[in-house]
Design a protein that fits this description.
The structure is a homodimer of 193-residue chains. Chain A has 9 helices and 6 strands. The first copy, chain A, has 193 residues and is α+β, with helices and mostly antiparallel strands. Chain A has 2 domains: 143 residues, Jelly Rolls, CATH 2.60.120; 48 residues. In chain A, strands 1, 2, 3, 4, 5 and 6 form a 6-stranded antiparallel sheet that branches. In chain A, a hairpin with a 5-residue loop joins strand 3 and strand 4. In chain A, helix 8 crosses helix 9. Chains A and B meet through helix 3 and helix 5 of A and helix 3 and helix 5 of B.
DNA sequence: CGGTCTCTTGACGGAGTTCAAAGCTAGTGG
DNA sequence: CCACTAGCTTTGAACTCCGTCAAGAGACCG
């Protein structure tokens, strides 16, 4: 149950066997059915979720009722509304499962205790926040400068695993275009080869 | 010289007079002429800059040679490439002055020492990072969902002070549109009222 | 003054949207 | 095992927003 998490942490900070065992005590396991929510708009995001299997997404719904996907997370990734989690403010985002999934949850208080007991993990969470920041900023740069086709090409290059698992219409939402446009872009690309 | 910084910090954490005085010792003052660089692509961003007066901007240049402005900073704001600063990686961004400006610089090592001497400032810098993260994410959401007109309206609402100080072509770059489009949008808006 | 920088305006073109309809696929129940 | 439905993708035609290219109008500065 914690094998994936262990490898994930070890890539970033080195823990002893004993430290890692104490670490796992702070996590709780949860199964999430397709379409089930982990976070709903208006609530405060109180946990970080590490994905063991399946796929989740984070999205906003705008005034026109349109969905904009901000992030996907498959196994070995984290998902949460960091803005809400860190500042304990109500979230404007939703997180739900694209497929049946299993996650390990780390509550805010559990995280605080974890950081006190194993200060090495400070580094881990700093890296996590930085990684998120970098990803959002890269996406912003892309969405300002690149065409829909280029954004799609970048997407399948960076996240090949997602292309298989996520319905096309949701990838379109992530890219900021309509499902119809993405369908046409894919047609174009397949004809070029 | 430090009056603005003092008020700025006090809004977020409470320092004694003596703590604040020790704090200021870590900053260095610098005047920056219009178009002068504070950071150039390929360098590592080694400092956080607090703007005392003037205006600076952070931007990338894409493959086509086009400029995309990521952030402006006028007095009472910070500017730096946080991605590069935090991870000590080479930056893909440039920072230069839109007008003659005065900034207070806080080097990485100075910041580390400051945090050791005055741990209260940990909170301050965490809030700074969070604020940046929130701003980038809000911008991403906007650029995915809103029209150029709506993005411009949001811009002048959030940053009225910038509209006066920054050339229109640079605001267009920030919004991800051409100067011509922004000119037309402004014309439309003035006719509506 | 003349030169440079910035903003405006017009005509045209292209990328992506919208609306509508039809195909496809997988799951469900008779 | 087939028929039916629901969800997802594809396709077409008209339209819209924004970009591109080109030219002109102000404004500022030496």
């Amino acid at each position: 149950m914690f094998a994936l998490l262990k490898k994930h942490i070890e890539k970033r900070v080195h823990l002893t066997e004993e430290e890692f065992d104490r670490c796992t005590g702070f996590f709780s396991h949860k199964a999430i059915k397709k379409r089930q929510f982990l976070l709903q708009e208006g609530d405060v995001c109180r946990q970080l979720a590490f994905v063991n299997s399946g796929c989740l997404r984070e999205y906003t719904v705008d005034q026109k009722g349109e969905v904009h996907i901000l992030q996907f997370a498959i196994e070995d990734w984290w998902i949460s509304d960091l803005t809400s989690f860190l500042s304990e403010s109500t979230s404007m985002h939703n997180i739900d499962a694209v497929h049946d999934s299993e996650v390990l949850l780390l509550e805010r208080t559990a995280r605080d205790n974890l950081l006190e007991i194993i200060p090495k993990m400070e580094r881990f969470f700093r890296l996590l926040l930085e990684g998120n920041y970098i990803a959002v900023q890269r996406r912003l740069t892309y969405s300002l400068s690149a065409s829909a086709e280029d954004r799609y090409l970048a997407f399948i290059k960076i996240y090949p695993a997602l292309v298989e698992q996520v319905p096309q219409a949701q990838i379109a939402s992530y890219l900021g275009i309509t499902p119809q446009s993405l369908s046409r872009i894919r047609k174009e690309l397949s004809q070029k080869r």
